[in-house]
């Protein structure tokens, strides 16, 4: 599961656990982006802080792992490069799924080499609000027909949590309690993240 995770919050953890359960996966790998292709207009928090928060949030779940493969890449993080690297590492007999929310997936045609990506990677797409669900379904159908894509859409209860909202709350001096794990909340306060 790729993401900026700036910071990780309960919706991320919930969709990861839902994917794990529904598809009976062996594990979830959280892959924080190094230089995200679609978020270059804003300054992303240092990768070591985002990794620290991921560690705190996932440490109680033995099926959750974190990978630094995108962080360690000098260049922009593209999902196609990540999938190819993972496929090489785990071998052909391992099924690898890329987990994403519908808000990210609906723009996949703007991703690097998206046609090839859709043909080599399996996707798990989690519903998220702010979405034209008819358009999404049309796209999924087209991708399956045109590129032989393997896409599993999972309907989840709407979770109105985002990293953007959490950062805004901190800037405005509001509480972020119950939107993310307490250990992550404490880490953010201690390290004075997102204050300006
Ligand atoms: N509330 C949510 N419901 C469903 N999917 C989510 C939710 N929050 C994040 N995701 C998905 O998790 C992945 C990683 O998300 P990301 O790290 O960009 O978090 P975000 O909350 O969307 O961040 P930001 O607000 O900074 O854009 C993306 O595929 C995104 O669609
Ligand atoms: O590969 C691409 O071109 C590409 C473009 C946009 C987003 N992604 C990936 O999609 C995931 C979710 O992105 P985001 O911006 O919602 O955090 C994250 O792993 C990004 O690297 C990938």
Describe this structure in words.
It comes from Alkaliphilus flagellatus. Keywords: ATP-binding, NAD, Nucleotide-binding, Nucleotidyltransferase, Pyridine nucleotide biosynthesis, Transferase. The chain is α/β, with parallel strands linked by helices and 196 residues long. The protein has a single domain (2-160), classed as HUPs (Rossmann fold), CATH 3.40.50.620. The chain has eight helices and six strands. A three-stranded parallel sheet has the order 1-2-3. It is globular, with a radius of gyration of 17 Å. It binds adenosine-5'-triphosphate and nicotinate mononucleotide. Residues 2-4, 33, 36-39, 77-80, 100, 104, 111-112 line the site of nicotinate mononucleotide.
Short recap of the structure:
With about 200 residues, the chain is α/β, with parallel strands linked by helices.
Secondary-structure blueprint of this entry?
Elements: E1 2-3, H1 10-22, E2 28-32, H2 47-58, E3 64-66, H3 79-90, E4 97-101, H4 102-105, H5 114-120, E5 122-126, H6 133-147, E6 150-154, H7 163-171, H8 182-190
Helix pairs in contact: 2-8, 3-5
Bound molecules: adenosine-5'-triphosphate and nicotinate mononucleotide.
